[in-house]
Amino acid sequence: MKPIKLLSILIIGLASMAAATPSSSADKVSFALNWVPYGLHLGPYVAEAKGFYEENGIEIEIFRGFGSGDTTKRVGTGGADFGMADASSVIIGYSKGLPVKMVAMVLDKSSDAIYYLKDSGIESVKDLPGRTLGAAAGEASLNLMSAFGQGAGIDVSKIKVVNMTPPAKIPSLIAGSVDSIVTFVTEEPTILEAAKAAGKSIGKFMFADFGVDRYAMTILANDSLIETNPDLVKRVLDATMRGYAWARDNPAEAVELFAKKFPESSSELVASQFEITLDLMITDLAKAHGLGYIDEEKMAKTIDLIGSFTTFEKDVKPEDVYTISYLPKIPASGK
């Protein structure tokens, strides 16, 4: 083989390898979810699939979480660079000394809900005392039960809480082992599908309907990362929020991208979960200020609400637990 031809082949081969391999100069970033991947998480997965992170010089690693409290600890202790967790977990984590801060809001509206079996005899919220409620110990929605009770005018101490792991809640409800469960409304499609298969009818009580309005799912980062590498925070948020915007504008295609990565998932369920996510994400605040926006007054009210059922180990002010200095301006309404 002639030297010139061999050289040409080598150059083409090296170019192909370079194109297929992430740039060595790309920043490696770990992103912990709050739970197993589902419709709520289309934003980061679409951003990964569409190359938004790569465009921003980021080599992303997204992995499942084990609850908001665990994700907050991971980010606070350096086990993950970024995470998705419930705002209450971030606020409580900060009060316990974890150096974490919210940098974008995903769910601007409270997503807490109680789902119940209609054949259990529960017809109104007044029927909950004396009934059983499946919940994971320490979960955000369970912690808000006292506030829910105040708004609903019921004594929640008379509700019999049955502690269980998060994966056991829906099967326990459908089997009738408990009369009700507390969870996020983004789980509703999964609950309704399981109920339909079992021939059961399900009802729900939204906490927001009883005066519990708070910030819910958020994106957080470690304070040290924010201080030492603010440009990276900007690039990660830009890619992630563009992922949510693209999924908003192209929901069917977004679900297809998710299904390619998780072929065992139900596209119908993921689509329904994302539809609920958008309803909780695109609020009047988001329409006025853009996706991910965090309002100081609403954050102060959220802190007060969380403080009503837990004792903070140190004073918590809005500026302690959030910043929107690195948030891109992406309109809430798309095409």
Automatic annotation (TrEMBL):
Signal sequence interval, chain numbering: 1-25
Domain spans labelled SsuA/THI5-like: 41-254
GO biological process, one term: thiamine biosynthetic process
Origin: domain of life: Bacteria
Keywords, ordered alphabetically: Signal
The protein's name: ABC transporter substrate-binding protein
Organism: Allomesorhizobium camelthorni
